[in-house]
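Lab notebook: predicted structure, single chain.

Context: the supervisor wants predicted structures on file for every construct in the current expression panel, including those that have not yet been purified. This is the next one on the list. No modifications to the sequence; it matches the entry in the shared construct table.
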Amino acid sequence: MTVHALHPLRRKAAIERRRAALLLWALVGVMLPAAPAAAQLGGSVSLFSQARLRGQPISDRRPVAELELVHDSASGFYLGGSAALVADRTNGLQPFAFKQYAGFAHRLSPGATLDLGVVHNGYTEYSRIIGGGSYTEAYIGIIGRNLSGRVFISPGYFRKDQATLYMEVDGQLDLARNWVIVSHLGRLTYLNDDRPAGSPGGVTDWRLGLRRHMGSIDLEVAWTGYAEDKRPYGPGHDNGGALVIGLTLVF
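Prediction complete. Output recorded below exactly as produced.
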């Protein structure tokens, strides 16, 4: 029997899939039996009409389902992780993405909380990220009642030599009972001067939507999109935006 070696990109994606499964099961195994009375274990199950990474489509406009678990301690430290599946056009349900994060939240005032931590995101070859890929970011921000902001910095954004800075502002405004207007504005800046020829210096993304609270279920409909800076050789890309529908059950 002949064994064919995997292409480096496919081999990397396969490793990422195995890592996602192992980390998620490890997360469940550690958090469920060890959660003290003073801590809180929670999570969510979500279904989205498509997945977007900072405004850019990454699921071939196919539906994505995600399970997330988070463990909050009384001291302010938290640990969480998520795994997602995509409804691939050819292969049906397939592993799509995973995330692990750890951080610390400290209440500064009744209306503001300091939030800092580290997050690792990974994607399989079933995403629109060629061959899959991953990146790690450190973040710090302030979470408010109606307005929040964070700054993320990565030494290797999908490439080990590609440093980036990402800044975001998220807002929400109560429109009526159980109805909320949600908004997001983000800016990704590439910090390297030696980035690939013709690539943009940065990307701006946005989201504007309406959320409906229905007990432990949230329904959100939002218009989201992105625009690249003008490239050295031609204009930047603007996808014009798309409507994304999400349904989340919180437990």
